[in-house]
Design goal:
213 residues, alpha+beta, globular, HTH_AraC, DUF6597
Length: 213
């Protein structure tokens, strides 16, 4: 069972996942990063931004997570997001001084360090639907500067960030019950075939398989 609840300002959400037997979970890219804790082992891991689906083995018990919104990773962990792209890294390797032993201490750690940068939020918003070159011009950066900003803050170059954010938007619409043709239009794909290709490239399965209960 997976459940989310609201988080303090600057964080995306708090979540828990409880399973009664070993299972494999498909984790798909969403532009976010997570701090995760397994009480049974005391393990604290940081999940970096993914560029494709990851199959995670989940042991019986409850996994606790704090999700950071796109762009927030460097302010919390002190390293550029591309350094942990597609990786799961022990928290101690990034912040050796952190001493966390409860879900509440995880939340406090992230909430006290996160910095919300309006410029990064604007960059992500513009890239959701705009041409990369046009976005760079609109925010007053060269294409090379925009690439550096995106790699450091989000973990992706601009075009990959655009693909991931569009895919995440499409997935949310599909979960809400919207027909796939309408999902393609609303999320900014050229057509339903374009949506299908992108979903398979980023998730490894079809959209129908991905949202199947």
């Amino acid at each position: 069972m997976y459940a989310e609840r609201p988080a303090p300002a600057g964080l995306a959400c708090l979540w828990t996942r409880t399973v009664s037997s070993p299972t494999v979970q498909r984790v798909v890219p969403d532009g976010c990063t997570d701090l995760m804790w397994t009480p049974a082992t005391g393990a604290l891991f940081v999940a970096g931004p993914d560029t494709s689906a990851q199959l995670a083995s989940v042991a019986p018990g409850t996994l606790y997570g704090v999700r950071l919104p796109p762009g927030a990773f460097p302010s919390v962990f002190g390293v550029p997001a591309h350094a942990v792209r597609d990786l799961r890294v022990p928290l101690a390797e990034l912040v050796p001084s952190a001493r966390l032993d409860s879900f509440s201490s995880m939340v406090e750690f992230c909430a006290s360090r996160v910095v919300v940068d309006p410029a990064l939020a604007a960059t992500a918003s513009l890239l959701r639907s705009g041409d990369v070159g046009a976005v760079a011009w609109e925010i007053g950066l060269s294409s090379r500067q925009l690439r550096r900003r995106c790699l450091d803050a989000f973990g992706y170059p601009p075009k990959v960030l655009q693909r991931v954010l569009r895919f995440d938007a499409a997935l949310r619409l599909a979960w809400g019950g919207m027909p796939f043709a309408s999902v393609a239009f609303e999320a900014g794909y050229a057509d339903q075939a374009h949506l299908a290709r992108e979903v398979r490239a980023l998730a490894g399965v079809s959209l129908g398989q991905l949202i199947r209960p």
